[in-house]
Amino acid sequence: MINGLGEKLLFFDGGMGTLLQARGLQVGEIPETWNILHPEKIKQIHKEYLLAGCDIVKANTFGVNSFKCKGTDYSVDMLVSAGIRLVKEAISEVRAEEKITERNAATEENAMAIENAADGTGKVRQRYTALDIGSLGKLLKPLGEIEFSAAYEAFKEIVISGDKAGADLILLETLSDSYEIKAAVLAAKENSSLPVIVTMIFDENGKLLTGGDVASVTAMLEGLGVDAIGFNCGLGPEQMKRLLPELTACCSLPIVINPNAGLPAVVNGNTIYNVAPPEFAQSVKTLVEMGASVVGGCCGTTPAHIKALTEACKNMTIKPITDKNMTVVSSYNHAVYFSEKPLIIGERINPTGKSKFKQALRDHDMEHIYKEGLLQEEKGAHILDVNVGLPEIDEPKLMEEAVTGIQAIIDLPLQIDTSDTEAMERGLRCYNGKPMLNSVNGKRESMESVFPIAKKYGAVVVCLCLDEGGIPETADGRIAIAKKIVKTAAKYGIPKKNLVMDALVLTISTGQDNAKVTLETLRRLRYELGIHTVLGVSNISFGLPERSRINTAFFTMAMNNGLSAGIVNPSSEPMMAAYYSFNALAGLDEQCMEYIAKCSQQPEKPKGANGALANADAKSAMSLEDAIVKGLTESAYQATTALLEQNIDSLTIINDKLIPALDIVGKGFEEKRMFLPQLLMSADAAKASFEAIKSTLSKQGRQSESKAKIVIATVKGDIHDIGKNIVKTLLENYGFDMLDLGKDVAPETILAAVKENNVKLAGLSALMTTTVVNMEETIKLLHEKAPECKIMVGGAVLTQEYADMIGADFYSKDAMGSVRYANELYEAGEI
Amino acid sequence: MSLGAVAVGKAVNMREIYRYMGYQGNVPDADVRALTDEVLGELLQAIEPKSIYKRFECAAEDGIVRLYDMEGKSLSITASSRNLADNLADCRQAVVMAATLGIGADKLLGRYELVNMAKASIAQACGAECIEAYCNLIQEEIKSNWADKEGLYLRPRFSAGYGDLALETQKDIFSALECTKRIGLTLTQSLLMYPTKSVTAFIGLTADAGGCYSKSGGKCAACGNKGCEFRND
User: Which one of B56, B115, B154 makes the best mutation probe of the A interface by having the most chain A beta carbons within 10 Å?
Assistant: First the structure.
């Protein structure tokens, strides 16, 4: 632990990079190699900072990681342990010098900080060695290159080395991606027991480079149990002054601020930081007055800056740190607070009672899940519930995949909804933010298994007011269970603010007081226990006709009785109308702005893929062929539905109408009369037509048939995949079953997919000359190990000659070419 | 919308977007034009353009380009490339720049690819033009901030991957400009960039006005792929 953290003002040291450059570090040289090549120079810098009055010294380990060490003569462990050792030596040498000058070296006591801390009596100033960890310089999947687990492993290696070498704390700094931060914090906490401080680089608008804001990462980090949070780098102290109030408003932990010596200025082509020490000290002093409790410097700051700072702030006390006591969840880019104004939790990502969703889970149709999410976001949900549990599927694996996929495209916080503790843990672990968890209940077994996981990942937990005795019939009974849950959670270190109580809804068709009991429970939970509440609202009408009438009335009553968040279907217009009306009536909608805005949104007219409104009359008259040629998705869907209602067979629709229409567009495209966007608008319309067919077939308990399975991938090293995705869309239109392996796919992975599925045609894409090499390698491997599989290739840099040279069976110059080739092979019976 | 996005929005050339969409010299029909406007609007909402550039002393001879720190005179970037050396011939100084639209563009593309492939293809084209337009703005800034005052002209931008300039050069550029820390650019093992709508480039500064940057582009001249559908000479 760090004595005095959050109680008195502590000082970090300042910048390292500029000082090293002044001592001869070349651009391109790894600064941390100097821990071994020029240890005296590094130690000297540490000593200068110690003499300037700092309490915490950052080891010269900021840029060390396995990615950077690859191909050098140094290992992570060598550089980290040398870096830690140099700080510790600097501390003891400075201490020794101090002892001489103080003439009080009466005992043989070890001057090292940590021993002094142990006896608690030493008046000797305690100094700490920080294992300094920066960004890996890689973006995480699914938007970037490396897996979350790979980032975790890379950080873990650094943490283990630093801990072993005797670091006193771990500083994660200059980070700007909340997902990378989460991987680093988990690595730090799971592989050491050292205090963890996280400082991040925000831009002047208060955003991380990956879009997170101050409130969202603070929520996540407090949940993960770090010891202090703050800002470093990027900005100077003046700019941080504007940003600090955002942090003090939401942060219940000590705040650390290590600014640059001003904003970087480019003078004559060189980057310089030009805030001088006295000016820097005065600005940072203001930051302390505003609520910072640990301060130091980053780029451009020197021992002179730190000396000026420690002197200017010498006798200052810090502002007391208070618990903000807010119930909050967050996504990668924003926080959502539970407050007087109720929230909408979208319930649609859940297979219960939805045969289509169940089928999608069985078919591993992730697109279906993501679209449900996008729709709910559009309809005004604040949080999305994610439940992918079916008895016959691997729920933990699917939960991880769903959470990872949803958070890549949707900005809302997620509620991990499962009773499988492994699925819970995997969902929470890969979640980029402070999650919600659904659910725990008052049973001992439930609390024992869920609370440790919830605590570890900082989840806000939905607690059901039931226990071994079932659901109490009275509000008293439910309140008693709620109290028990709150008490037990506290034992696990989970504060009340991280619990949200589900008062439970039983249908009024089986008990006429059921709604009354729920409402009373809600009221008492919220206003007597002071805890936020949640309900699965629509259960109230189970077994009754015209359910939405009861649901909306009950929803309004519940909100009026203290409901903090309703788990509802945001696509239900009556429910959302009740929601916005309640807010307006309860004085929660300033000048009824939100209500008016919602009312002024016209009910959506059918839209074509081109965004233009389809004329209602023309639409009903429009044939499927016309709808597809014109690229009108809604019309295509309706025309198909109309044909199906006339009992026309789905195969006839596809072969006689859909495909010929696609052919018209395809031909136009090949003859350059039509262009890519039009081709894709038609493809999207055809897709809508297939949706209509699929939904009719699934109602009849049938599945659509496909021609043949085709594997498609962007080759290893290449990250461009729109071309591949276009090809995939068109081939799907023509009835092929596409197994899309994504981008940056290793040759072995492609081979395995081909073998496993007994696939006879693979499509490979590459955009760069540098990655065509990997395409060639993949072709060789496939031809050798799966000779029956034909390979078609495409991508900007390829030509027929090039494709021949690397041994491809077919070169497709555009997306239609691949359709023609696949059809030829299919008709010839080769695939 | 971020300030950078507003500036980029003003600078984009719709005809270039249509060209990236595969329309060659043609203008799309009204529906596609409307859809393009819609997508461009959404893209501009999603992007956070960020950039960094730095000036170096430049020595280009015998197919080797060396860039030195302006102060310390220490060697920062070395590239073995005839094409780049030709591009920087007679340039005693060069600027190295890095620019990105940020991760928001990639996120939006991912969304479109799920629900609307036509929009995805258009967003791809809009993104390509936005980053180009953004680079042009940066180039204009360099021109008016230093170059004009010092009587220097700007050569066309030249990026790793053009001609014989290896992607390996990206490593030097990333470390010399601190791209990851300063603007959030990352480099994959195969030396490609995330976020994907990003550019790094060399810009020669020379007293000789010949063969120099003009707003109309001309960057295709350096490329050997004469058959390219998107060639713009």
Answer: B115
Residue with tokens 């030195």: B68
Same fold, A10-312 and A328-587: yes
- Please answer yes or no on whether A717 and B190 come within 8 Å at the CB atom: yes
Entry pTM: 0.90
CA distance linking residue A228 with residue A251, whole number of Å: 9
pLDDT digits (tens, 9 = 90+) for A59-89: 999 999 999 999 899 999 999 999 999 999 9
Distance CA A584, CA A489 (A): 35
Yes or no: say if A374 and A563 are a contact pair by the CB < 8 Å rule.
no
- In eight-state DSSP terms, residue A537 is G
Q: How far apart are CA B64 and CA B66, in angstroms?
A: 7
A792 in Cβ contact with A763 (< 8 Å): yes
Write down the ipTM of this complex. 0.89
* Cβ–Cβ below 8 Å for A139 and B186: yes
Query: CA dist A315 to A8, A276, A288, A311, A312, Å?
Result: 10, 22, 12, 9, 8
A722-733 and A815-827 helices, crossing angle to 10°: 40
Q: What are residue A414's DSSP bridge partners? A: A384
pLDDT at res. B70? 81
Q: What confidence tens digit (pLDDT) does each residue in A735-775 have?
A: 999 999 999 999 999 999 999 999 999 999 998 888 999 99
Residue-wise pLDDT tens digits, A124-140: 789 999 999 999 999 99
A540: Cβ–Cβ under 8 A, 6 or more apart, which residues?
A505, A506, A507, A508, A514, A515, A518, A550, A551, A554
Question: How far is Cα A665 from Cα A675, in angstroms, rounded to an integer?
Answer: 9
Chain B hits for A371, Cβ within 8 Å: 114-115
Selected for mutation to probe chain A from B107, B152, B172, B174 (highest A CB count within 10 Å) is B107
Q: How far is B62 from chain A (nearest CA, A)?
A: 23
Mind listing the domains of chain B with CATH numbers? 3-211 (3.40.109.40)
List the structure tokens of A322.
């208070």
Query: In terms of CATH architecture, what is A709-827?
Result: 3-Layer(aba) Sandwich (3.40)
Question: CATH: 1.10.630.10, 3.20.20.20, 3.90.420.10, 3.40.50.150. Which one for A328-587?
Answer: 3.20.20.20
Alpha helices by DSSP H, listed for A331-469, are 355-362, 366-378, 395-409, 421-429, 444-457
